[in-house]
Structure formats: C-alpha cells, structure tokens
C-alpha cells in the first residue's frame, strides 16, 4: 500500500465498515510506524489504470489488508477488505495468504485475528485457511456490541 492508494482504500473503508471506518489520520499514524512492525498490502485492478480509486500510475484498489508484528513470534491480522463488486474471486484469500506467508518469513509461529460473530463469510474464509476459533470477546465491536471471535493459525 502506497500513499497514492489511500483515496481508494478510504472509500472502501467507508463502504465496508461504516460503523468504525479508519480515518485518514489513523492510516497516517499506521504508515508512520516502523516498517518491521506493520505490513499493508493492496490488490489493484490491472485491467487498465485510472478510474475511481486509482492511485497514480496504477489501477483502482480492489482490496487491502494489514498486519501487525508486535514483536516476538506472533502476528495479528488488523484488517482485510475487498470491494463488493470483486467478492468471490479469490482476492480476499490471496491477501490473507500473502499476510500469512510474510508472517512466516519474518519468523512468526502463530497468527491471530478477530472477526465479527455476525460475519459468516469472513469466518468461513479463515476456517478454510487453517484458522481455529479460540475464544470470544463479548461486545468487542462498538457501538454495535457485536461479539468478536478470536481465531488463531499455527504456522509451525
Ligand atoms: C471477507 C472478504 C474479505 C472476502 O473477500 P473475497 O475476495 O470475497 O474472498 P474470496 O473470493 O477469497 O472468497 C472467500 C470465500 O467466500 C466464498 N464465497 C464466494 N462468494 C460468496 C458468497 N456470495 N457468499 C458466501 N461466500 C462466498 C468463496 O467461495 C470462498 O470460499 P472458499 O474459502 O471455500 O474458497 C470480503 O467479503 C469483504 O471484504 N467483506 C467485508 C469486509 C470484511 O468482512 N472483512 C473481514 C473482517 S474480519
């Protein structure tokens, strides 16, 4: 993810997470963190450049994902999102696979994530990619009060 991708990312963020979308300031703060502690990826449409959400010289953002490396052998998926018009084509799976691969290359042995209890699509994606449900955080998502399911994938 580069600065030029941000308009497209922010538009998707608003569309997909209307209750708790990240702001430009939140992304700026993330980009200011040391490179070894974060990884942000985008999927871009390479069927021509330009158009809505397109960064300079590249295609429109169709998805993005972020990972936190807090230190030690753990990695946390921070976000993963795909433009609704592009769902079901493997972009979400590809982004997740890229994050998990990078976690392995950085020496991590386990990957954690939280997913809304009422998001069967994402939960299914993670379960089929080797994540296991290990706990529940009651009322984690605010203001909705929806529970978070905590999932873990063992990389060893
Ligand atoms: C969850 C999300 C990232 C998945 O992205 P995607 O690009 O559609 O993912 P994929 O194309 O790799 O498909 C994932 C699975 O959904 C299945 N799927 C495809 N279309 C589907 C549909 N209409 N309904 C339910 N599942 C569907 C796919 O077959 C695939 O199943 P598989 O795991 O057996 O291969 C995307 O739906 C999204 O951005 N949702 C809103 C934001 C969100 O919930 N993010 C996750 C927060 S934890």
Shape-level CATH architecture: 3-Layer(aba) Sandwich
State the share of residues found in helices, binned by percent: 25-40%
- CATH topology, by name, is Aminopeptidase
Task: Kindly report the name of the CATH homologous superfamily.
Answer: Gcn5-related N-acetyltransferase (GNAT)
- Number of DSSP E strands: 6
Structural shape: globular
Ligands and ions found = coenzyme A
- Termini separation (Å)? 28 Å
Explain this structure to me?
The protein has 156 residues and is of the alpha+beta class. The chain has a single domain (3-154), classed as Gcn5-related N-acetyltransferase (GNAT) (Aminopeptidase, 3-Layer(aba) Sandwich). It is 28% helix and 32% strand. It has four helices and six strands. The protein has a six-stranded mixed beta sheet with strand order 1-2-3-4-6-5, sandwiched between helices. Strand 2 (61-68) and strand 3 (74-82) form a beta hairpin. The two termini are 28 Å apart. The mean pLDDT is 93. The site of coenzyme A has 18 residues, from strand 3, helix 3 and helix 4.
């Amino acid at each position: 993810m580069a600065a030029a991708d941000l308009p497209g990312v922010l538009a998707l963020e608003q569309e997909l997470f209307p209750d708790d979308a990240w702001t430009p300031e939140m992304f700026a703060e993330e980009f200011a963190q040391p490179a070894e502690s974060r990884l942000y990826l985008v999927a871009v449409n390479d069927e021509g450049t330009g158009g809505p959400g397109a960064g300079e010289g590249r295609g429109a953002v169709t998805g993005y994902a972020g990972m936190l490396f807090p230190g030690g052998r753990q990695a946390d998926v921070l976000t993963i999102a795909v433009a609704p018009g592009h769902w079901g084509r493997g972009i979400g799976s590809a982004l997740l696979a890229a994050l998990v691969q990078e976690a392995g290359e950085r020496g991590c042995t386990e990957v954690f994530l939280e997913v809304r209890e009422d998001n069967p699509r994402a939960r299914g994606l993670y379960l089929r990619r080797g994540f296991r449900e290990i706990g529940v955080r009651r009322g984690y998502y605010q203001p909705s009060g929806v529970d978070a399911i905590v999932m873990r994938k063992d990389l060893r």
